[in-house]
User: What shape does this take?
Amino acid sequence: MTEPVPNIVLYIAFAFLMAAMTITLARLLKGPSVNDRIAAMDLIASIIMGVILVYSVLINNEMYFDIPVIISLISFIGTIAVSTYLKQKNE
Amino acid sequence: MNKIIISVFILLGSFFILVAAIGILRFKDLYGRLHATTKATSFGLLLMLVGVSLFFNIFPVYMKSLLIIIFIFLTAPLAAHSIAKSFTGNGENSDNTAENN
Amino acid sequence: MKSLKLLYYIPEFIVFYLAELVKANFYIAYIILSPKMKTQPGFIEFPLKIKSSAGLLLFSNLVSMTPGSLSVEICEDKKTLLIHALLISDHQKTMEEIESIQKRILRITN
Assistant: This one.
């Protein structure tokens, strides 16, 4: 049922995701306005979903597949909540 | 054969997420950044989810993966829309948007 | 007869959506990774014909997924949609593309 994927592929994917995480953290620290920071937080949630998916392939355990479901729900609610708060504060 | 397909999906997915991160750093204004993060992130996650569910190849994983894909594709443009809408009334960077108009 | 037509239009719409998605992503990857990003951002106002709210949700989602356009705001009276375009000099081509999307969604929701 499960053919092993070569480990080097997974390590390259990890490297890509970690580089993406570093760059996004730079934008999160630098971001001129609050909205840039919200966009960066949204992207960080997606990157963490990717990391968990690759990790579940690495240790060959499908139980980890539940975590991305929850992260996708929570990150959307958080983004909407903060941006709605900002909009009401500006009015 | 199966192995190669899964590897290509996972590598392309993480590559597109990296592209989104480079885009969020390189674009000059908020709207360009939203372009990058909306499209590239959801496409990268789609490719990655397809690859991982092909790897496990059991029914519950396919169902969860389909759920996540539908949810992401419904909500990623909505989140970008909400962020962009809260930006237009913002005081400190409003000169930037007026210039583009 | 109408539901039979719908049975053809919906899979065609899904295939169209996926094709647009792939095209949009390669376009944005090309823009981001090219060393000199030649973007010329600007806003476009697009007149809406869709009235149902489900159709509007689908339409604004799909506009966000087409190459180089992002839906920013729908007016109070649901008449115009404000679109942010990455290349304003290709204004005419973007308008035509969005027009064809609107035609497809009207076929499904009506």
Q: What stands out?
A: The mean pLDDT of chain C is 84. The longest helix of chain C spans residues 2-33. The interface with chain B takes residues 21-22, 24-25, 28-29, 32-33, 37, 39, 41-43, 60-61, 64-65, 68, 70-73, 84, 86 of chain C (CB under 8 Å). The longest strand of chain C covers residues 42-47.
